[in-house]
Automatic annotation (TrEMBL):
Known cofactor(s): Fe cation
Domain Pirin N-terminal residue range list: 11-121
Superkingdom, natural source: Bacteria
Keyword Iron listed: yes
Gene Ontology MF term list: metal ion binding
One Pfam family this sequence matches: Pirin_C_2
Alphabetical keyword list: Iron, Metal-binding
Entry binding sites for Fe cation: 59, 61, 103, 105
Residue ranges of domain Quercetin 2,3-dioxygenase C-terminal cupin in the record: 149-234
Taxonomic lineage from the root: Bacteria, Pseudomonadati, Bacteroidota, Flavobacteriia, Flavobacteriales
Protein name: Pirin N-terminal domain-containing protein
Signal peptide range in chain numbering: none
Binding note for cofactor: Binds 1 Fe cation per subunit.
Length: 238
């Protein structure tokens, strides 16, 4: 019997630092909610807007898989592995922090804000060698489809991480519906609506709502308006 947990957009943590306006689906920084620490291996889902010319100074991470999805504008990245790159809207970036990395991220544009999701997953294996990867997605593959953007397999579509997780981006027309089939038994799903409204097995979700689902094999997803959303299939234990 499937179980669900609904996180409405207006129940998220919120911190506006001026240069950064952040919404937290799970406990982060100064926002702590004991019922919202993680969903399985999904530890962080931050919905960030970074002001023009601003950003995050150099800071460390370890033993975390960090996925960044720009939604608007660009994000410049530098890290202790020697990577220096800019990710743009339509890209996806992943860092396996592993044994430890330092990185900085900033908005390189003087007159445009940057919007992004940053997602952290606990890894399957601790203390791996740190790695970095970024790709540009083909947005047309998301139209009325689940376009895979992340998996555990380097040979599959999208980026890969050290976890049995599969992420898909979708851009559905109003009234379009499609059934998602679980990739790995025992995994859960966290659905996050980027824009518009959808139903997941009849549960209504609006813009920036999140829904965690466990104990299922298939999910019927229907757009009740034009809608974009992110599907994150993840292990429930770490």
């Amino acid at each position: 019997m499937k179980n669900t947990v609904l996180h409405k957009a207006n129940t998220r943590g919120h911190a506006n630092h001026g240069w950064l306006n952040a919404y937290h689906s799970f406990s982060f920084a100064s926002w702590y909610n004991p019922e919202r620490v993680q969903f399985g291996t999904l530890r962080v889902l931050n919905d960030d807007t970074v002001a023009a010319g601003m950003g995050f100074g150099t800071h460390p991470h370890d033993n975390m898989e960090i996925i960044t999805i720009p939604l608007e504008g660009d994000l410049a990245h530098k890290d202790s592995m020697g990577n220096s790159a800019t990710i743009k809207t339509g890209d996806v970036q992943v860092m396996s922090a592993g044994t430890g990395i330092q990185h900085s991220e900033f908005n390189p544009n003087a007159d445009l804000q940057t919007k992004l999701f940053q997602i952290w997953l606990f890894p399957k294996t601790r203390n791996v060698t740190p790695r970095y990867q970024q790709i540009t997605l083909d947005a047309t593959e998301q139209k009325n489809n689940f376009a895979q953007i992340l998996s555990p397999n380097a040979d599959d579509a999208g980026v890969w991480i050290h976890q049995d997780a599969w992420f898909h981006l979708a851009d559905f027309d109003k009234d379009f519906s499609k059934t998602y089939e679980l990739k790995k038994e025992g995994n859960g799903m966290y659905v996050f609506v980027i824009s518009g409204t959808i139903t997941v097995d009849g549960q209504e979700l609006e813009t920036r709502d999140g829904l965690g689902i466990t104990d299922f094999e298939t999910l019927d997803i229907k757009a009740t308006s034009d809608a974009k959303f992110l599907l994150m299939e993840i292990p429930m234990e770490h």
